[in-house]
């Protein structure tokens, strides 16, 4: 898995909504807030299954209705296409969770 090229960064990262850089790491971070724990956990279950299928696992933390997620690719030493793909998937599931 290769890291994102400067061109890929310039085009793909600004198109992700609400994902912020996470210095000093080459990573993306987002905090999602749901209606309650049930909604947060349902969302996490869907993301976990997608992550497993993609062999790409988020670093995340849940406190009741709040889920903090950090994406990076250890194998690439920074951001790769897998992070962009998982971020898109996460945003879709979050939207569906309301
Ligand atoms: N998940 N986020 C992330 N980054 C990785 O580099 C990674 C992973 N899940 C599994 C995985 N790599 C495997 O290829 C092994 O390196 C564990």
TrEMBL record:
Keyword Cell cycle belongs to the record: no
Keyword Calcium: no
Key words, A-Z: Lyase
UniProt-listed InterPro entries: PCD_sf, Pterin_deHydtase
Broadest EC class assigned to this enzyme: lyase
GO biological process: tetrahydrobiopterin biosynthetic process
PANTHER family per record: PTERIN-4-ALPHA-CARBINOLAMINE DEHYDRATASE
Entry similarity comment: Belongs to the pterin-4-alpha-carbinolamine dehydratase family.
Listed name of the protein: Putative pterin-4-alpha-carbinolamine dehydratase
Source organism (scientific name): Caldimonas thermodepolymerans
């Amino acid at each position: 898995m290769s890291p994102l090229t400067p061109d890929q960064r310039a085009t793909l990262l600004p198109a992700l909504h609400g994902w912020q850089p996470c210095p000093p790491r080459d990573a993306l971070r987002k905090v999602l807030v749901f209606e309650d724990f049930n909604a947060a956990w349902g969302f996490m279950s869907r993301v976990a299954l997608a992550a497993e299928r993609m062999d790409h696992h988020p670093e995340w933390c849940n406190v009741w209705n709040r889920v903090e997620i950090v994406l990076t690719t250890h194998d690439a030493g920074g951001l790769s296409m897998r992070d962009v793909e998982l971020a898109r998937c996460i945003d879709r599931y979050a939207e569906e969770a309301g």
